[in-house]
Amino acid sequence: MREYLIRRLVQFVPVLLGIGLVTFLIVKSAPGDPVAMLVDVSLLSQEEIARFRDDLGLNAPLPVQFVTLLKELATGRIHSFRTGEPVLALLAQRLPITAVLLGGAIALSLLLGVPLGVLSARRPGSWLDNWLTTGALWGISLPAFWFALLLMWLFAGVLRVLPASGTGPATKLTYGVLDMVPYFVLPIVVLASGLLPPIMRYTRSSMLDALGHDYIRTARGKGLSETAVVYRHALRNALLPVVTVVGMLIPVLIGATAVIESVFAMPGLGRLVVEAAIGRDYPTIMTLNFLTAVVVLASNLAVDVTYAILDPRIQLE
Description:
Helix content is 77%, strand content 0%. The chain has helices at 2-29, 34-38, 46-56, 62-75, 87-122, 127-141, 144-158, 177-210, 214-221, 226-263, 269-278, 282-310. With 317 residues, the chain is mainly alpha-helical.
């Protein structure tokens, strides 16, 4: 296991460098000038604009700019064009919000999706199975931003039981964790709505396959209760495809935070990505893209390790 982890971690390096190069070329090819986003160029002379570009390192050749960004990123001394602050400081401020949203969405979708998938598999073709299947298809097809606006209108506008936006009460200068909880309910529900349907469907499909195997008939022949057969024997093997789909959907979930955080006015990493892209803030974009790539690679590695834990027959090599 240790050798496998070391080898995978070493493989991360060229992958991250490739992702960084592609990201750099894309942002440099995009229309728009960071200088024009930061100052009114009509008020500056050409010499002042050139000096400003030199200060930002934008007049250097592209390979030099790329290497400089990598060095600053590796040393943690990379700074935002827009604010001049260290990008890592911006990430430290906003990462907790995005982490709570992602963790809450994954936890909620697993807590609901796996039991619903098992319930559907135990009664295939029944009215309950049909209703759950219809609900899953509806959830997959539902646009996240529209669902977010619908929940805001219903729970914040009509019922007035949950806040519509933000991360804490605007009427208080300081507030605690409990004051923030209501503000995260709707965003987490919206994010989970995109993850729950595939988890439920994959759990159902895997459970139907597992319940047809010989070891399940053997377990029933030994006189075990149906609950023990389903949850102790079938579910553990059925979770392997579910772990895979969660790992595959994490990048999609990270991308969805940009929309959800913008709709709910939450200052997380997703909203920071949008702000950086609009302002052509190259250092912030590069740092956020690297962070996302690391999270995705780490989630894939976690999926492989979880495979070996759930099924000891799988050997990591």
